[in-house]
Design brief:
This protein is an alpha/beta fold. The chain has 2 domains: 74 residues, Winged helix-like DNA-binding domain superfamily/Winged helix DNA-binding domain (Arc Repressor Mutant, subunit A, Orthogonal Bundle); 114 residues, 3-Layer(aba) Sandwich (Rossmann fold), CATH 3.40.50. 43% of the residues lie in helices and 17% in strands. A 7-stranded mixed β-sheet has the order 5-6-4-3-7-8-9. Helix 1 packs across helix 4. The chain is globular, with a radius of gyration of 20 Å.
Amino acid sequence: MAKATSISMSVIRRLPRYYRFLGDLERKGITRISSAELSDLLGLTASQIRQDLNCFGGFGQQGYGYSVKQLREEIMKILGLDHPSDAILIGAGNMGRALVGQLDFAGRGVRLIAVFDNDPALFGRRIGDYTVRSMDELDEFCKGSSPKMAVVAVPRDNAPEVVDRLLALGIRAFWNFSHYDIPSADTNVIVENVHLGDSLMTLSYRMKAEASSKL
């Protein structure tokens, strides 16, 4: 398998989509599929799919296709979903509650172990299976539980201070919804800055382009 550092992020970002579609196929009882059939489902070329999978050694056989179960299991291992990382959520507002309520963290390689907020009105409240803790407890909790990742769902103005504090506590991976782009120049820090508004604006552009093409 190629070294992870030599694989482009565009390939990495397609893997979760492969994993998701393969899960759908497995639930439908489909046991084998060709790259051509996968290309029809995913809207990618068969060549692109083969190239992506060959980055990790390739898992199909000429004229035989891919075992859906085996390929999904291999992608699960590549993504690290078989060894979930402990994470904490900072921010129990609307975004934080939505993430806890709607997202299967464990099924995506993350074990959420605690939720924190700085609003006294939220302390002790339940969000799903979690009781909201005060930020005053953060340092002691991190020193005792050593989470590897933080989900940041705080207002933009609060984010820099929160991130600096988390970095000082040894957290080096961030899934960030704060609308503040966490700098990732430090090679020891892994960041996914999520901007939902960017996706919406991209959709707006595509709609405008589509309308213009029909004029």
